[in-house]
Amino acid sequence: MIALPLLVALPFLALPLVAMGLRARPAAAPLLALLPFGLFLALLLLPPGAAFTAERLPSLGLETSFRLDGLSRLMALLITGIGAGIFLYASAYLKGHAALHRFLAVLTLFMGAMLGAVLADDLFSLFVFWELTSLASFMLIGFDHERAAARRAAQQGLMVTVAGGLAMLAGFLLLAAAAGTTRISLILEQAGALAAHPFAPWIILLVAGGCFAKSAQWPLHFWLPNAMAAPAPVSAYLHSATMVKLGVYLLARLNPAFQEAVLWQGLLTGAGGLTMLTGALLALRERDLKRKLAWSTVVALGTLVTLIGLEEPLSATAAVVFLLVHALYKASLFLISGIVDKKAGTRDALVLRGLARAMPLTALAAALAGLSMAGAPGFIGAFAKDLLFTVQLGVPGLLPAIALAVNAAMVVVAGVVAARPFMGRPMEADRAVKEPPLAMLAPPLLLAVLGLLFGLLPGPISAALIEPAAGAILGRPTGVALGEKQGDELVLLLSLAALGVGVVMYLGWSRLQPRLAGQEWLDRYGPDSAYGEVLRAVSRTAVALTRRVQAGSLRRYLSLTLLMVFGGAGLVLVLAGGLAIPGQAAPVRVEQALLVLLIAAGAAAAALMRDLFAQVMGAALVGFGAGLLFLTLGAPDLAFTQFTVEVIAVVLLVAILARLPFRALDARRAAERRNDAILAGVVGAVGVAVMLAILSVPFDPRIPEWMGQAAVPEAKGRNVVNVVIVDFRALDTLGEIAVLLIAALAAAALLAKRGGRREP
Amino acid sequence: MKESLILQSSARYVLWTSLAVSLFILLRGHNEPGGGFIGGLVGALGFVFHALALGQGATRRLLRLDPLAWAGLGLLAAALAGLPALLHHGEPFLTQQWLAGTPIGTALLFDLGVYLVVVGFALAFVLPFLEE
Question: Are the Cβ atoms of B129 and A655 closer than 8 angstroms?
């Protein structure tokens, strides 16, 4: 089905148009929302189960596959549906910004990458799109790149998610090796066998590591609140509704393969539970609206990971419903926090008061989203809460207690973010607070209203979205329909208790927050400061190392390089027992012996003379002598090359010497000369030892014989050396001349600085 | 070195002679000792001689393009020589092709590319050190 790759390709194809078109006509920005909206409609029309496969490198088992099943369909609809609202909102939020076109282009790139990641059905396509989303996230967090905090946050997000991505790649390689295929749908068919495979623990640890980094699970959760340096639409889109759900998505995707494994269950519920607790505590402590929402997103992600790790069949449905609910209310609340920030001039929850009178529609949207978040009856959030409690309270161990505490904390967050800024007497603001333009108001309002609409009419989305997605996570149909009451009396009672505790804490929050904020150890010993320490340690080490190795003296570089290469080769020879003397040697002819003497004399002159000109001439004697020696050994091509290289080298060296402002004398001290002599001795000895070792290996004449025979019929040339260079090993030659060019480019950069040649 | 009248007046002839010789070496390389590498070095020597006699500015004017650009063109030529195999015969990249019955083919273009890279490379290193 070609439609799938086309859908993914469309945002990428639109990129140049977006970047250049909007640069020329920024006023057209709102129209861009039609792209995700069109994709949304197309996805609604596509039949579930559509698949596409194109072979890429069959010999390596590489292919490009896409597949639309219940889970990827839900994700893709969220990406494009919420995306349409985000694009519209962003066009108004950043109206007049000089880099609006760049922002929307990266957002488009992100949407394409995200669609690719959830629709991909082979591990490596998934990986490439996954990393692309990390890159887009980096560019979007750092959009305001003149602020140091934004740059740091962008770098941190990239480092954490890409490091996780590398672990995941290693996991994918093991997974592909264990399953014998890279296609995910085929991997999932071998569920039982895979969980018992000896690689399984490593696959689980590595892949889960990547997912945890992406979905901000403890202890890798710290990058997400810092990512709030990004503009509000980015926080709503990437860092709550879609990208951070990618880790959850992949865990859910692979769940059928590993759900039986104890490690999988323990890892997911353990990390998820810790994430929930940490996020809830830090959410209570935060007073910045956006960061508060970010911590509550961390809680939601922890909840989702926990749900996937639970064995309970109902947990898959709970995860899907909560994922949808969270995407709707959290994106809405982030967009509202952006409106509040813009219109009231602050995001401080302790300062914001009484905005409802000036912006009633925004307050309405906030109230609807907040009620869905708190799980009020009538909203789809109520189903999520009912399912969550039913699943989490039925598990033995600490999870029920964690779930209750976290739920109470989320009630507080919902109140502080969605109700508190709008209630009470109007605050004093430095500007006239008023409603935002329609393009900014409509998306959050619509998302919040959807939360109510789905809650009132759960039937259709249950059959069309929830059930198929939950079935994909479980690996079989769930048989659960949304709207059926799940929990018993006890569950209802406990959830009411959590609500009550939450309301009480909300009322006392303005006194609770400063106490929590006073606990500085939470910052000092948190992973965020550990991250900073690690980065500082890396640069300290790099500085110390650079100072030692790169002292700025060319002679030192040369000595170090020679020592490493020849010392290393010598060490290997000795350790591996490679020292050998060839049994048979060709007889030495008189002229060869004389040439060797000539070379030795040249070397001695270069080493002993004080005059640099004389040293160059001595070195040249070595080179020309070697050329003549090649000639006597039947290698005219080599001799020819050696002569020409030697001439150029001598000209170059003499030209340099001629430019020196002082008399060209060797200025080394006695100790330096001694050290150089030792180094030269080592290099010479190792060189001879390597040569002897090579000559001791029996020579296999088949390759040169074949080359000699094939040169004329296959390559139409009688000079075998040249035939090898331009034909038999042409690819090697291409690589070599590419290296020559690169070296020349590097040299040109260095020489231009010297001031010898003037750049304009 | 600039003062030598003999050097200056002979520089052009030496340059053209060595270029002719270098092309001869390039062309004969397939059957006798020679080829793009050696030919390129000999050609570069001609230019170095020219620059020694008349100053590197004169040589650069004669070259028209920066030595690096010549090297880049060479790499391009060598890479292009690998394409006909893909386009017409589905053979691996850089499988050399010949005009039926003649020794003229993609191998020659490839070797010409090597020649240009070597000339450009050598001159990029040497010319900046020679006097204006």
Answer: yes
Question: Among A641, A645, A737, whose Cβ lies nearest the Cβ of B117?
Answer: A737
Q: Would A565 be classed as within a structural domain?
A: yes
Distance from CA of B27 to the nearest CA of A (A): 11
Chain B interface includes A745 (CB < 8 A):
yes
Integer Cα distance of A129 and A408 in angstroms? 37
Q: In the beta sheet, which residues pair with residue A473?
A: none
Identity at A21, one-letter amino acid code:
G
Nearest chain A residue to B93 by CA: give it.
A731
- A564 and A511: one domain? no
By the CB < 8 Å criterion, does B41 face chain A? yes
Least confident range of A106-115, A118-127, A162-171, A387-396: A387-396
Looking at the structure, tell me whether residues A501 and A561 fall in a common domain: no
A99 touches chain B (CB under 8 A): no
Q: Which of A648, A678, A700 lies at the terminal end of a domain, its last residue?
A: A700
Based on the domain organization, do A591 and A453 belong to the same domain?
A: no
Nearest to B94 among A659, A730, A757 (CB): A730
Please write the tens of the pLDDT for every residue from A318-342: 999 999 999 999 999 999 999 999 8
pLDDT above 60 for A453 = yes
- Which among A299, A314, A310 has a CA at the least distance from the CA of A383? A314
Question: How many domains are contained in chain A?
Answer: 3
Q: Which of A500, A519, A538 is where one domain is finished?
A: A519
Same domain? A494 vs A577 = no
Question: Is the whole-model pTM more than 0.90?
Answer: no
Count Cβ atoms below 10 Å from residue A204 Cβ, excluding itself.
23
Domain range for A124: 3-519
The dihedral built from the CA positions of residue A232, A24, A9 and A170, taken in this order, carries a sign that is negative
ipTM: 0.93
Q: Name the residue type at position A345.
A: G
Domain-located, residue A527: no
In a shared domain, residues A497 and A600: no
Give dist(CA A283, CA A516) in Å, integer.
Answer: 10
Token pair for A332? 């809405």
Surface of A (420-479) touching B: CB under 8 A: none
Q: Is the pLDDT of residue A684 over 60?
A: yes
Nearest beta carbon to residue B98 from set A645, A716, A754: A716
Contact B96 A726 (CB under 8 A): yes
Q: Do A638 and A706 sit in the same domain of this protein?
A: no
